[in-house]
Design goal:
This protein is an all-beta fold and about 525 residues long. It is about 0% helix and about 45% strand. Strands 24, 25, 27, 32, 33, 34, 35 and 37 form an 8-stranded antiparallel sheet that branches. A 7-stranded antiparallel sheet has the order 23-26-36-28-29-30-31, with no helix packed on it. The chain has a 4-stranded antiparallel sheet with strand order 2-3-4-5, with no helix packed on it. It is globular, with a radius of gyration of 23 Å. It comes from Paenibacillus whitsoniae. This is Glycosyl hydrolase 43 family protein.
């Protein structure tokens, strides 16, 4: 039994209701800009990973509701600068496709250009990244292979790099996906009717070419569909999904998938601030060759997102599943849920130094670094629920003078319950908070021993974080501060939780386990 199965009953968010229905979001985790495909009876999804490593997550499902994280297409970023954090840079809005017996991912790096990788199977290995087109601000790329063998690529722009926004452009592409064959042509300008037009996905159905694209802004926008009998247009437009009277803001970009049963479904994200861009699933009904997403209220023309709905018809019921979050560190490699802030070094950690423990070495900060904001060796994972409890068992006896280790919630602002070995060799438990500008200490107490202890944070629905600690895994002592600390999103991402160890380089901290569960009232 793997970790995700072992802790399923304690999982703080499960979409599958066990009665043939599901709750949105299907993934209450920061899988931003999701794209999804079906190959036979299998569904695969990827999402933006920005500067976090490994990047380009690959998830698998058999029913579009229950998902497992199976791989990352980028184990290490072989571009300059990834020895340090690249907040908000890197992998933006990928597209996942299956064509010619291979799996393809295209994405735009706003500072580099259009990138591509392929694999024979989503579980990998994936080929090294290939630069299809160099250029700043080329983002939200999507390839398309037509029935006549011609290949195309559509993209949007990052205004911050290119000085262009609201516009979608299309160009011819070599069938092998490695080159663009001409300069792109404008296929739609959303300046007047669909401002902040971005995230295009290109499809063909019943003789129409369709562009699915969100507009109006991440937290306030809507889904637009454009269609034409000619791939170059002109395209007519229709808003097919908006927030309406629901609490699901956005709703933002995603991907269309059609089932063997004939059903159509749309996967998209909703921006929930500190909790990230969580993933929703909407039914799609076709009316006069226009897709209607979600449900339409009487007297309304535009669909609204569903909250509770029947599961897709995939022919049978599949077991309940969620991506792993808890980790007992009893394997030979780190769980797939973990990401570093930069390309990892083997000197940062070990799973062999102590059986069934993760050893984090006290990595020196380096010149010019203060606090944790730009530390590359933070080991973090996504939030997985609107509220959750995270507990770790940590042995600080390996820390040396000046070393710090602890449990962290990280975003633009961060807060951690840490253990520090002072210059006098004393062990101090403290609550630290900081941002890009620096850190402050909010609370501290001196410990009498260096024995293993548990550190805990409970993250509430208002994003407030309550820290506590225990010496026996049973009785927890709250860390009391004058005001609750509120988690913050990061650059284009939700807050993350995880562990770290910093210092002079001579010490270490051992972590026995990292467990994510529901908050249980006393």
């Amino acid at each position: 039994m793997n970790t995700s199965d072992r802790f399923l009953e304690d999982a703080p968010w499960i979409s599958d209701q066990g009665d043939g229905t599901y709750l949105n979001p299907i993934l209450h985790a920061d899988y931003s800009d999701p794209d999804v495909i079906r190959v036979g009876e299998d569904f695969y999804m990827t999402a933006s990973s920005f500067g976090h490593i490994p990047g380009l997550p690959i998830l698998h499902s058999r029913d579009l509701v229950n998902w497992r994280l199976i791989n990352h297409a980028i184990p290490r970023m072989d571009l300059d600068g990834y020895d340090k954090p690249q907040h908000g840079n890197g992998v933006w809005a990928p597209s996942l496709r299956y064509h010619g017996g291979k799996y393809w991912i295209f994405y735009g790096d706003p500072d580099v250009g259009i990138m591509m990788t392929t694999a024979d199977h989503p579980a990998g290995p994936w080929a090294p990244l290939h630069l299809v087109k160099e250029g700043r601000g080329l983002i939200d790329t999507c390839p398309f292979w037509d029935e006549d063998g011609q290949a195309y690529l559509i993209h949007a722009y990052a205004n911050s790099r290119a000085g262009i926004k609201h516009k979608l452009r299309l160009c011819r592409m070599s069938p092998d996906g490695r080159h663009l064959l001409d300069e792109s042509q404008l296929v739609y300008d959303g300046t007047e009717n669909h401002p902040t037009l971005e995230g295009p996905k290109l499809y063909k159905r019943n003789g129409y070419y369709y562009i699915f694209a969100p507009a109006g802004g991440v937290a306030t926008g809507w889904q637009t569909v454009f269609r034409s009998r000619d791939i170059w247009g002109p395209y007519e437009d229709k808003i097919v999904l908006h927030q309406g009277e629901t609490e699901i803001n956005g709703p933002h970009q995603g991907g269309l998938v059609e089932l063997e049963s004939g059903e159509s479904w749309f996967v998209h994200f909703q921006d929930k601030g500190a909790f990230g861009r969580v993933v929703h699933l909407q039914p799609v009904h076709w009316v006069d060759d226009w897709p209607l997403m979600g449900v339409r209220r009487e007297g309304h023309e535009i669909g609204e997102p569903v909250v509770h709905y029947r599961k897709p018809n995939v022919g049978r019921a599949y077991p309940v599943e969620v991506p792993a979050s808890s980790d007992e560190f009893d394997g030979a490699v780190l769980g797939l849920q973990w990401q570093w802030q930069a390309n990892p070094e083997r000197a940062w950690y070990s799973l062999e130094a102590r059986a069934s423990w993760l050893r984090l070495f006290a990595v020196p900060q380096g010149e010019g670094r203060s606090g944790l904001y730009d530390a590359p060796n933070l080991l973090l994972q996504k939030m997985v629920a609107p509220s959750s409890r995270i507990t770790i068992a940590i042995d600080p006896s390996g820390l040396t003078k000046g070393d710090t280790a602890g449990l962290l919630v990280f975003g633009y602002r961060y807060c951690y319950l840490g253990l520090r070995c002072t210059e006098e060799g004393l062990l101090v438990l403290f609550l630290g908070s900081g941002n890009e500008q620096g850190e402050e200490e909010l609370w501290s107490t001196q410990l009498k021993a260096e024995a293993p202890l548990c550190l805990r944070v409970e993250i509430r629905e208002d994003a407030s974080c309550v820290y506590s600690y225990s010496f026996d895994e049973t009785e927890f002592h709250s860390v009391i501060t004058s005001e609750p600390w509120i988690a913050s999103e990061g650059k284009w991402v939700g807050a993350k939780a995880g562990i770290f160890c910093l210092g002079s380089g001579g010490g270490f901290a051992d972590v026995d386990w990292f467990r994510v569960s529901q908050i249980v009232s006393p």
